[in-house]
């Protein structure tokens, strides 16, 4: 089923204040909390949906990204069902200590992430913002990016334990990773303070990684940018995010594309637009021009006699490539009026004015005619 807009989920308009967002979520959380609706899967799903919406809209950075790019804007930022712990940092005035609820419904709090089929937890996804030239976005390119990520420790191979040692079940939580307590009709679960929610403790931590199983390292990779990519789109690079704990699989790298404006060209979908200056005589008599395309080719363009300022000429298949086809290029003709004239030039124009005649009292041009042009 398609995800609903986060504002729609909370019953709010896009410009809602933080206080409105908080109040709307509190109402839904009380209504749909599974402890009040035991065995009701629909209520549980609505509770999850409302919490995901609140987790994004209560965070200024995530909300700005969501408002601009929708769900794609918060991918890789901890949005969605990856890190819901922040949703309760300011909510102790609602239910008291609310931490740990997502250990019950989403497989853990902020420390936990998705699990692979082997049971090992996957590492975090990472986000990289890449700015590329307009031309590279149109025709595609390859770019080397450098960033830092957590990699599996080469000494302990990601286990966190020194050679020959192991780990034991946490005596505080009995291996569950959670400490539960009751508060009214709620059953509150919070990460175990001894093992940090892992369910076990390492007897002799690896000296090189301090028992984390990962080390922070710089990474360089080549990213392929497909032709025709649009501003704000993302490229997903599998397995280039953080390493999972205890030898778990790597997360993904999300590369978000930002495109630098071009000096002469703009785009609309697959079409390119540019403006080209022509002289009065070229416009009046007609001519042939050689126009430079985005990829620096010269193409011949025929200018019809009597063309007016601001008219568009369409050049087929000179636009942006995508899916085996190309858009078009539109050239806006801008008639340049000379600011300085030679003596002979002035004489010729004065003669032209006498021959062709000029209206010293012109009528206004119909607005409908202007719109059609």
TrEMBL record:
<feature type="zinc finger region" description="CR-type">
    <location>
        <begin position="140"/>
        <end position="218"/>
    </location>
</feature>
<feature type="binding site">
    <location>
        <position position="153"/>
    </location>
    <ligand>
        <name>Zn(2+) 1</name>
    </ligand>
</feature>
<comment type="similarity">
    <text>Belongs to the DnaJ family.</text>
</comment>
<dbReference type="Pfam" id="PF01556">
    <property type="entry name" value="DnaJ_C"/>
</dbReference>
<feature type="binding site">
    <location>
        <position position="170"/>
    </location>
    <ligand>
        <name>Zn(2+) 2</name>
    </ligand>
</feature>
<dbReference type="InterPro" id="IPR001305">
    <property type="entry name" value="HSP_DnaJ_Cys-rich_dom"/>
</dbReference>
<feature type="binding site">
    <location>
        <position position="173"/>
    </location>
    <ligand>
        <name>Zn(2+) 2</name>
    </ligand>
</feature>
<feature type="repeat" description="CXXCXGXG motif">
    <location>
        <begin position="153"/>
        <end position="160"/>
    </location>
</feature>
<keyword id="KW-0862">Zinc</keyword>
<keyword id="KW-0143">Chaperone</keyword>
<dbReference type="InterPro" id="IPR036410">
    <property type="entry name" value="HSP_DnaJ_Cys-rich_dom_sf"/>
</dbReference>
<keyword id="KW-0346">Stress response</keyword>
<dbReference type="InterPro" id="IPR002939">
    <property type="entry name" value="DnaJ_C"/>
</dbReference>
<dbReference type="Pfam" id="PF00684">
    <property type="entry name" value="DnaJ_CXXCXGXG"/>
</dbReference>
<dbReference type="Pfam" id="PF00226">
    <property type="entry name" value="DnaJ"/>
</dbReference>
<feature type="binding site">
    <location>
        <position position="209"/>
    </location>
    <ligand>
        <name>Zn(2+) 1</name>
    </ligand>
</feature>
<feature type="binding site">
    <location>
        <position position="156"/>
    </location>
    <ligand>
        <name>Zn(2+) 1</name>
    </ligand>
</feature>
<keyword id="KW-0863">Zinc-finger</keyword>
<dbReference type="GO" id="GO:0042026">
    <property type="term" value="P:protein refolding"/>
</dbReference>
<dbReference type="InterPro" id="IPR018253">
    <property type="entry name" value="DnaJ_domain_CS"/>
</dbReference>
<feature type="binding site">
    <location>
        <position position="195"/>
    </location>
    <ligand>
        <name>Zn(2+) 2</name>
    </ligand>
</feature>
<dbReference type="InterPro" id="IPR012724">
    <property type="entry name" value="DnaJ"/>
</dbReference>
<feature type="repeat" description="CXXCXGXG motif">
    <location>
        <begin position="170"/>
        <end position="177"/>
    </location>
</feature>
<dbReference type="GO" id="GO:0009408">
    <property type="term" value="P:response to heat"/>
</dbReference>
<feature type="binding site">
    <location>
        <position position="192"/>
    </location>
    <ligand>
        <name>Zn(2+) 2</name>
    </ligand>
</feature>
<keyword id="KW-0963">Cytoplasm</keyword>
<dbReference type="GO" id="GO:0005524">
    <property type="term" value="F:ATP binding"/>
</dbReference>
<feature type="region of interest" description="Disordered">
    <location>
        <begin position="354"/>
        <end position="373"/>
    </location>
</feature>
<feature type="binding site">
    <location>
        <position position="206"/>
    </location>
    <ligand>
        <name>Zn(2+) 1</name>
    </ligand>
</feature>
<dbReference type="GO" id="GO:0051082">
    <property type="term" value="F:unfolded protein binding"/>
</dbReference>
<dbReference type="InterPro" id="IPR036869">
    <property type="entry name" value="J_dom_sf"/>
</dbReference>
<keyword id="KW-0479">Metal-binding</keyword>
<feature type="domain" description="J">
    <location>
        <begin position="5"/>
        <end position="70"/>
    </location>
</feature>
<feature type="domain" description="CR-type">
    <location>
        <begin position="140"/>
        <end position="218"/>
    </location>
</feature>
<comment type="subunit">
    <text>Homodimer.</text>
</comment>
<dbReference type="GO" id="GO:0005737">
    <property type="term" value="C:cytoplasm"/>
</dbReference>
<protein>
    <recommendedName>
        <fullName>Chaperone protein DnaJ</fullName>
    </recommendedName>
</protein>
<dbReference type="GO" id="GO:0031072">
    <property type="term" value="F:heat shock protein binding"/>
</dbReference>
<feature type="repeat" description="CXXCXGXG motif">
    <location>
        <begin position="192"/>
        <end position="199"/>
    </location>
</feature>
<comment type="function">
    <text>Participates actively in the response to hyperosmotic and heat shock by preventing the aggregation of stress-denatured proteins and by disaggregating proteins, also in an autonomous, DnaK-independent fashion. Unfolded proteins bind initially to DnaJ; upon interaction with the DnaJ-bound protein, DnaK hydrolyzes its bound ATP, resulting in the formation of a stable complex. GrpE releases ADP from DnaK; ATP binding to DnaK triggers the release of the substrate protein, thus completing the reaction cycle.</text>
</comment>
<keyword id="KW-0677">Repeat</keyword>
<feature type="compositionally biased region" description="Polar residues">
    <location>
        <begin position="364"/>
        <end position="373"/>
    </location>
</feature>
């Amino acid at each position: 089923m398609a995800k609903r807009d986060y504002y729609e989920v909370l019953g709010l308009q896009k410009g809602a204040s933080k206080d409105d967002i908080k109040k709307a979520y509190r109402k839904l959380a009380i209504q749909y909390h599974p402890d009040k609706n035991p065995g009701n899967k629909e209520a549980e799903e609505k509770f999850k949906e409302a919490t995901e919406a609140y987790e994004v809209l209560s965070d200024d950075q995530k909300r700005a990204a969501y408002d601009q790019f929708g769900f794609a804007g918060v991918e890789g930022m901890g949005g969605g069902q990856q890190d819901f712990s922040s949703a309760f940092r300011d909510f102790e005035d609602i239910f008291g200590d609310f931490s740990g609820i997502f250990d019950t419904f989403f497989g853990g709090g902020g420390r936990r992430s998705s699990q692979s089929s082997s049971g090992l937890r996957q590492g975090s996804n990472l986000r990289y913002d890449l700015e590329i030239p307009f031309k590279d976005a149109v025709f595609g390119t390859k770019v080397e990016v450098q960033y830092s990520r957590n990699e599996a420790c080469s000494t302990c191979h990601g286990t966190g334990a020194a050679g020959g040692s192991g780990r034991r079940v946490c005596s505080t939580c009995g291996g569950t990773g959670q400490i539960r307590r009751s508060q009214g009709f709620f059953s509150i679960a919070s990460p175990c303070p001894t093992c940090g929610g892992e369910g076990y403790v390492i007897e002799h931590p690896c000296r090189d990684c301090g028992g984390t199983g990962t080390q922070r390292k710089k990474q360089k990779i080549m990213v392929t940018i497909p032709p025709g990519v649009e501003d704000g789109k993302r490229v997903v690079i599998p397995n280039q995010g953080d390493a999972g704990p205890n030898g778990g699989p790597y997360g993904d790298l999300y590369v978000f594309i930002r495109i630098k404006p071009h000096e002469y060209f703009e785009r609309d979908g697959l079409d390119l637009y540019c403006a080209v200056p022509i002289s009065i005589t070229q416009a009046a008599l007609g001519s042939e021009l050689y126009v430079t395309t985005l990829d620096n080719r010269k193409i011949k363009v025929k200018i019809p006699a009597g063309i007016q300022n601001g008219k568009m000429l369409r050049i087929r298949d000179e636009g942006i490539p995508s899916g085996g086809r190309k858009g078009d290029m539109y050239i806006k003709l801008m008639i340049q009026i000379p600011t300085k004239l030679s003596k002979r030039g002035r004489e010729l124009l004065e003669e032209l004015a006498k021959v062709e005649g000029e209206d010293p009292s012109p009528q206004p041009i119909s607005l409908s005619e202007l719109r059609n042009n």
